[in-house]
Each structure stands twice: as C-alpha cells, then as structure tokens.
Design brief:
Layout (H helix, E strand, L loop, with lengths): L2 H8 L3 H9 L6 E2 L5 E2 L2 H15 L8 H8 L9 H41 L1
Antiparallel strand pairs: 1-2
Amino acid sequence: MRIGDLAAEAGVTVKAVRYYESQGLLKPRREANGYRAYSAEDVIVVREVKALLSLGLTAEQTYPFIECLRAGNDRADVCPASLTAYRARIAEVDRRIAELTELRIKLADLLTDAENWRTRR
C-alpha cells in the first residue's frame, strides 16, 4: 500500500507517516519505481504510535512498544521494555502533578493574600 493509503487507514496524515519513518518507527520497502510500499503491519504500528503519542510519550519512547509488536506479540505493551516505558511515563506524570499542585498552592496563597489586602484598605 502507498503512503496515502496507510495514512487514511491508520487515521493520521501523510506528514505524520513521514515523521514516523524519519524517527525509525516505520521501515517501508521500496518498489522498483522508488515508491514506498507499506504493509498491513505498518497500519498497526502507526495506530499504536498515534495512541502512545496521545498519552504524552515521545516518538523515542514508543520504540519498545514497536519492537514488541515486531517481535510477533499481539499487543505492544506486553514486553518488559514496554512496561518499563509505561512506568517511566507514569513517574513523569506524577512529577508534573506534584509541580502543578505546588504551583496551585502558591497561586491560591497569593490570591488569598491579595484579597485580604484589598478588604483591609
């Protein structure tokens, strides 16, 4: 299948497919005329990458999942490296939640202080 067909079937843009390829996530074969040829497995890979990116993983962080699929697994997240990637992303989210919680507390304190100052005037 050609790049436009792959993009349509996977629900992404042609630009996204090219990006995934530039990141080494897709390795299409070349036809005699030089066109890229993609397989049904590539559709699965692109869908998986799209889903993982929507969870905030970077293209690089999707490698273990893609390798898991290429190893013949039905799911991309059953391999030890995939589980490690999940854990790392959860840790990143936890750190960000802590940062945002601290920021919220500071902002709320500033708001309370400003409101109290205003009413004392």
